[in-house]
Specification:
The relative contact order is 0.08. The protein folds into three domains: 3-121, Nucleotidyltransferase, domain 5, CATH 3.30.420.40; 132-199; 218-324, no CATH class. The protein is globular and about 65 Å long. The two termini are 47 Å apart. It is built from twelve helices and nine strands. Helix 10 (268-283) packs across helix 12 and helix 11 (289-300) runs antiparallel to helix 12. The longest helix is centred in the middle third of the chain and has 31 residues, at 132-162. The strands form three sheets. Strands 3-2-1-4-5 form a five-stranded mixed sheet. A two-stranded antiparallel sheet has the order 6-9. It has helices at 40-53, 73-81, 91-100, 108-121, 132-162, 169-197, 201-211, 218-228, 237-244, 268-283, 289-300, 303-324, and strands at 3-10, 14-22, 28-37, 61-66, 85-89, 248-249, 252-253, 256-257, 261-262. By secondary structure, it is α/β, with parallel strands linked by helices.
């Protein structure tokens, strides 16, 4: 026996667990499976059940879960605090694996078995819980984003009602009141985000270095740090780019040359945080961002494609400042690419 692997398919109220082993001959066998409730007592029952079926404690164990919304977090944290090795995989990665091994039927029990097999056959990166400081930032910035979206939706409804043939004054009054309430909530949430950013002197110093860049504000920095756990899990720029979904996907085979696009298989909140600041970097002519944008626009004649490249460049800049803990030193603008390397910037579509 080489390894135990526990696959957990989790939902809001419960989860299915499947314990498998991989033998010396590389064959994966299911040892046991069971359903548990998704709360603390269910987690404790899982530990007891696992102890009854894991006969050889010297054999390593890995627990594999899907990143299903926020429902997996409590269970993952409980298991992590018990000293167990937990791996969290993105749903699209698990889906591709299930397809590759021929799992056509889908239900919670089968998915748990598939995750267990995945953990047994592959060497997955182990999960580290998010620091409480950055978790708070993530919660606040996502709440702020939700409020903004809600305000936009109500504003659209109000606009439609104002231009309707039969406008209802009571409805419009109620909608205006809702918008005022949301605007107050936005102000309060923004204030909480500012307080959280500067509560830690060491972090506050780095934040100041980043916000000294014209066009980059506290909300951008807070969302970036909250979604990346302060860049704690990234050892290279390529890992960060892939996590954000800015990695380039080529569509080429034989004589067919399709469009080169960004994958978007990453954190959409992080890409959203880069959206408006990218426009600011070009508008305020910060560093070499404007010449970079103009060069790409001249080549592709697509503004959004060029702006997405600016987004990626800005994210890398924030990462570099954070890691080096140094202020931003703008480079002198260049009119052409002097590196000799071919630039392959992605499409926004």
């Amino acid at each position: 026996m080489l390894k135990y692997s526990l696959g957990i398919d989790i939902s809001k109220n419960d989860f299915h667990a499947c314990l498998s082993v991989i033998e010396v001959n590389q064959q994966v066998k299911v040892k046991a499976s069971r359903k548990f409730s998704n709360h603390e007592q269910g987690f404790k029952d899982l530990i007891s059940w696992l102890g009854n079926h894991r006969k050889e404690l010297s054999v390593p164990l890995v627990i594999v879960m899907e990143a299903t919304g926020v429902y997996y977090e409590s269970c993952a944290m409980f298991l992590f605090k018990k000293g167990l090795q937990v791996a969290i995989v993105l749903p699209n990665k698990a889906k591709k694996y299930f397809q590759a091994v021929g799992l056509k039927t889908k239900n919670d029990k089968i998915d748990a078995a598939g995750l267990a097999r995945m953990g047994a056959e592959q060497c997955l990166e182990l999960w580290q819980p998010m620091d409480e400081f950055f978790y708070t930032l993530r919660a606040l910035t996502r709440h702020y984003q939700s409020l903004q979206e809600l305000k936009t939706n109500i504003g659209n409804q109000l606009h439609a009602d104002e231009h309707s043939i039969y406008s209802n004054k009571k409805v419009m009054k109620h909608l205006k009141k809702l918008i005022t309430t949301i605007e107050n909530e936005l102000l309060e949430t923004a204030d909480e985000i500012d307080k959280q950013l500067y509560i830690n002197p060491e972090i506050a110093k780095k934040v100041q270095f980043i916000t000294d860049i014209k066009g980059v504000g506290n909300l951008t920095v807070a969302a970036t740090l909250g979604e990346t756990n302060g860049f704690a899990l990234f050892s290279s720029i390529s890992q960060l780019i892939s996590y954000a979904g800015y990695d380039v996907v080529e569509n080429q085979s034989g004589n067919h040359n399709g469009k080169t696009r960004i994958s978007k298989k990453g954190n959409s909140h992080l890409r959203r945080a880069m959206h408006m600041p990218a426009f600011n970097m070009v508008r305020y002519d910060v560093g070499d961002f404007k010449p970079f944008f103009e060069r790409l626009f001249e080549r592709h004649h697509q503004k959004m494609k060029a702006y997405v490249a600016v987004q990626k460049k800005l994210l890398v800049l924030i990462y570099t400042i954070w890691k080096k803990n140094e202020p931003f030193k703008p480079k002198k603008p260049v009119t052409q690419n002097t590196s000799g390397e071919k630039e392959t910037e992605p499409s926004f579509a």
